[in-house]
Every structure is written in structure tokens, then in C-alpha cells.
Write a structure and sequence with these properties.
It contains five helices and 17 strands. With 333 residues, it is of the alpha+beta class. The strands form five sheets. A four-stranded mixed sheet has the order 8-13-12-10, with no helix packed on it. The radius of gyration is 47 Å and the shape is rod-shaped. The N terminus is likely disordered. Pfam families: PKD_4 (PF18911).
Length: 333
């Protein structure tokens, strides 16, 4: 019996073959184009340069990418994108910023930079302008007037409390305590430019009657180890001649005040000469210690003293002061 053979005819339409070939050609071309046009992104590099990397200071950014043709700089502070190769940029506030550089539209690199606080530079032209006395006494009224241009508000502080003492252009204040104080003025709320001036407040002088009362109630020479001795530095003829002259009289209270004035540098030692027949080289007992008047006055000059007791010894004939007994408050005694 003869077997029957099945014959299969495979037929492909020419249009299908043509379309298939075109598709392969297109995809091959795209693959080859992308392969040869791909950028090497790992080589994107840039650096930044600045003197101190502070707010509002200029920073230069420089790109070193080989083959770069376009640039997009984003500085992380919401400012506009810059497209030049080596731009300059300033950051308005301190902080950390991520700087992103995109090269040729696809390759990018990100670097973080730290921006420090801006250094404050005092502008002396913005300081308040006013004058104040250098020395006052406790209880005296101090008056100050501001002459700052375009000033609208004022805050005066006179150094005795932390609170504001006056909000007016012309301010008045009475000090209650002695010492070195600072008058400060803030104009238009500008706390960075505060005007300051030093003022020395002297203690209120004691009444003369109080000194006289102390002198009369207790003898000053009690328990004093050294008795005052007359120190003669001139020849006898000169002393006799000066004794003939009329010596002005001064009370013990007034003499005590002159010692205080010498310590405050209001008068000089020469102011005492008329009461001593012209000789300042006389003994003085200070707090029970023997001193020389000339040396003593040099020591107290420029210092604050308080005379508690004072007694004057005069020559019976000429009335010149020959010896002094005094009790004072002084840090170095």
C-alpha cells in the first residue's frame, strides 16, 4: 500500500518581510547613536573660592568638566539658575547649601558648602551724638540732649538700673549713688549702634557742721603715739619776717574740705600755702601715723577720701598752721 505524503508550503508575504527589515534597521540606528553620543558624567568637577565664606560675600564657582558645552548652576537658596560657566554668587543668610551643577543637560554633581555669619562692622557715622558732663555729684540733676540727624525715637539709660530712664530727646536724671557710670543712648531702635559716655558721680559732701561737731565732741590727739613737731626748713630771719605778715584764718571744717578738693583734683597743694606762712613741709598725723603734709597730699591726689575728724595746731604769735591731726577714710591707710 503506497503511503500518502503531506506537503506543506510556507509562504511569507513580501510586504511583511520589508516592514520587519525596516524596524530592525531603525532600532539598530538608535542604539548606535546612543552608544556613541553618551556623556561620561563621572568626570563633572567644579570648585568654589571665597575669602571667608560668609553671608553677603562673593563666592566664585569654576567648572573643570572636559567637553562641557552648557551649564546649569542651582545654589540651593531659591535664587535663579545661572548658565554661565564660572559664575559669582552671594548667599544672604548663613547655613549649609547644596550647590548643584548640571553639564550638557544630563551630567551633574552636588557639593555642600557652609556659609558663616556676616562680620558686623561698626559704622561710626550711625552712632548717636550727645554730650554729657564728665563729673557730677550725687543729688545733682544731669541734663543731656541728643543731636543725632534723622532721630525719631530715643532710649536713655543712665547706668544705675537696666531699664530705660527716658524716651525723650532731652533727658534729665538725678543720680542716687556715687561711682563711675555709663550713659547710653539707642536711637531709632538701632541696637547695633549705641552711643555711650562715662560719667563720674562723686559722693555728696558732708555738711561742715557735722565735722565741727565731731571735733568738739572728742579730742583728736587722744592715744596718738607721736606728738607733732615743727619742721623748720627756713632760716630764723625768714620765719620771723613771715610771722609779721597777716595770715588768713581758716576753720578746721574748711581746711578739711580743701583736703577733699585736693584729692578730687579740684585745687592744688598751693592753695594751702597762705595758711602756713608759705611752708608746706609741716608734720601731719594721719590716722595716728606720722606723715609729711606735702607727701600726704601727693598720695591722696586723684583718690576719693572722707575726712572724719580734723584738728589744726597754730603758732600762737603768727597764727600759722604748724601741725595737723586728721582721721580719714582711705583704702591704702
Amino acid at each position: 500500500m503506497e503511503e500518502k505524503k503531506n506537503t506543506y508550503n510556507y509562504h511569507l508575504d513580501k510586504t511583511v518581510l520589508l516592514l520587519f527589515g525596516i524596524t530592525i534597521l531603525v532600532f539598530s540606528s538608535l542604539f548606535i547613536y546612543k552608544f556613541y553620543s553618551q556623556e561620561e558624567c563621572t568626570l563633572v568637577q567644579f570648585k568654589s573660592e571665597s575669602k571667608d565664606y560668609r553671608a553677603e560675600s562673593f563666592i566664585r564657582f569654576t567648572d573643570y568638566t572636559v567637553g562641557a558645552e552648557s551649564w546649569e548652576w542651582q545654589f540651593g537658596d531659591s535664587t535663579a539658575v545661572q548658565t554661565e560657566r564660572n559664575p559669582y554668587h552671594t548667599f544672604s543668610k548663613p547655613g549649609k547649601y547644596d550647590v548643584r551643577l548640571t553639564v550638557n543637560g544630563s551630567c551633574e554633581i552636588i557639593k555642600t558648602i557652609q556659609i558663616k555669619e556676616k562680620i558686623f562692622v561698626l559704622d561710626s557715622t550711625k552712632l548717636p551724638v550727645f554730650t554729657a558732663p564728665k563729673i557730677v555729684t550725687v543729688g545733682d540733676k544731669v541734663t543731656v540732649i541728643d543731636s543725632t540727624k534723622d532721630a525719631n525715637t530715643w532710649e536713655w539709660r543712665f547706668g544705675e538700673t537696666a531699664s530705660v530712664n527716658s524716651y525723650e530727646r532731652k533727658a534729665e536724671y538725678t543720680y542716687k549713688e556715687s561711682g563711675l557710670k555709663t550713659i547710653s543712648l539707642v536711637v531709632n531702635g538701632d541696637l547695633k549702634h549705641i552711643g555711650k559716655q562715662k560719667i563720674k558721680v562723686l559722693p555728696k559732701p558732708e555738711k561742715k557742721e557735722r565735722i565741727e561737731k565731731i571735733i568738739s565732741s572728742a579730742p583728736l590727739d587722744e592715744d596718738i603715739k607721736y606728738k607733732p613737731e615743727l619742721s623748720i626748713v627756713k632760716n630764723t630771719d625768714t620765719i620771723v619776717e613771715e610771722k609779721k605778715k597777716k595770715v588768713p584764718h581758716i576753720t578746721e571744717a574748711n581746711f578739711a574740705q580743701k583736703l577733699v578738693d585736693i584729692s578730687d583734683e579740684k585745687i592744688t597743694l598751693e592753695a594751702l600755702k597762705p595758711y602756713m606762712c608759705g611752708s608746706l613741709d609741716i608734720p601731719i598725723i594721719v590716722n595716728k601715723k606720722k606723715e609729711n603734709l606735702l607727701v600726704f597730699c601727693q598720695k591722696i591726689s586723684g583718690k576719693n577720701i572722707t575726712v572724719k575728724k580734723l584738728k589744726i595746731i597754730r603758732d600762737e604769735e603768727s597764727k600759722c598752721i604748724t601741725n595737723i591731726l586728721v582721721s580719714v577714710n582711705l583704702g591704702w591707710f
